[in-house]
Write a structure and sequence with these properties.
about 130 residues, mainly beta, Hypothetical Protein Aq_1857, Chain: A, three-stranded mixed sheet, about 35% strand
């Protein structure tokens, strides 16, 4: 299903240690974003009943059953660069993805075209 790079695991270990109570990180796929579907990440106190629980050392990832098919084979990395830092998703299932890297299309077509600032594409900041 989902794979985390060493950089992502290291960053998440630090975040979870400082969180004061989170048991793991939820990664989900929901409708939205400029390409049709978007990734969501958030700290969780516990796994849900239908969650797949993936363990990477001290880091636990929770994925709900609806998101699992969209995340099969996804590699999550944490990158730092001149434009900022954040998590990057490499999704082999995406038919197209947005310039921001946080939105994708699971079917033919989609993608970003002359995105407006409100769409989230290519906008620096806190994409999760």
């Amino acid at each position: 299903m989902v794979t985390l790079t060493e950089s992502a695991v290291s960053t998440l270990e630090q975040v979870l240690t400082k969180s004061g109570g989170a048991a793991g990180l939820r990664i989900a796929v929901t409708d939205g974003g400029c390409a049709g579907m978007k990734y969501q990440m958030g700290l969780e106190a516990e796994a849900g009943d239908d969650d797949a629980v993936l363990e990477f050392g001290a880091v636990k990832i929770f994925v709900d059953s609806n998101s699992q098919p969209f995340l099969d084979g996804v590699v999550v990395d944490f990158v730092e660069g001149i434009e900022g830092s954040g998590f990057k998703f490499d999704n082999p299932n995406a038919a197209s993805s947005c310039g921001c890297g946080k939105s994708f299309s699971a079917g033919p077509g989609g993608g970003c075209s002359s995105a407006s600032p409100s769409s989230g594409c290519g906008t620096p900041g806190t994409h999760h």
